[in-house]
Amino acid sequence: KATIKKKGNESIATIEWDTDTQASTVGTDRQCRGVIVQALRENQKQSKIALKKLWHDEDQVELALKTLLADGLVEATGKSYQLPN
User: Fold this and answer.
1) Cα(3)–Cα(14) distance, rounded to whole angstroms?
2) Measured between alpha carbons, how far is 20 from 1 in angstroms, rounded to an integer?
3) What sections of the chain are H helices per DSSP?
4) Which residues contact residue 85 at a Cβ distance below 8 angstroms, ignoring those fewer than 6 apart?
5) Residue-wise over 3-25: b if at least 16 C-beta within 10 A, else e?
6) Is 67 exposed, middle or buried (0-12, 13-18, 19+ CB in 10 A)?
7) With contact defined as beta carbons under 8 Å apart, do 33 and 68 qualify?
8) Other C-beta atoms lying within 10 Å of the C-beta of residue 78
9) Is pLDDT at 17 greater than 70 in this prediction?
10) How far apart, in Å, are the Cα atoms of 19 and each of 14, 22, 49, 82?
11) Across the chain, which distance is largest between two alpha carbons, in Å?
12) What is the phi/psi pair of residue 15, to 5°?
């Protein structure tokens, strides 16, 4: 379960996994993409800077954003990202 918590003006991702019933995806591109999508569900628009703060590896966030854009799951709106309407 991925959740995004607000701390002041920052969003912080927390991840909880039931390893008994689910294959491990901790630290994977799939998990990174999920954290980004969850943040956009909860906050509508997010800057790339804000999204990079949600994950420990900025390069992985860059890759996740590129693939989410290519898959049509995220839209770029100026300097922000959002889910498609």
Assistant:
1) 5
2) 14
3) 29-43, 48-52, 58-70
4) none
5) ebeeeeeebebeeeeeeeeeeee
6) middle
7) yes
8) 7
9) no
10) 16, 5, 31, 30
11) 42
12) -120, 130
pLDDT at 11 over 70: no
Sign of CA dihedral 80, 32, 73, 70: positive
pLDDT, tens only, 31-76? 999 999 999 999 889 999 999 999 999 999 999 999 999 999 999 9
Look at residue 22 in the predicted model and tell me its pLDDT: 54
Structure tokens belonging to residue 67: 């693939």
The CA distance from 46 to 1, in Å, is: 20
Which single residue is written with the structure tokens 């701390």? 7
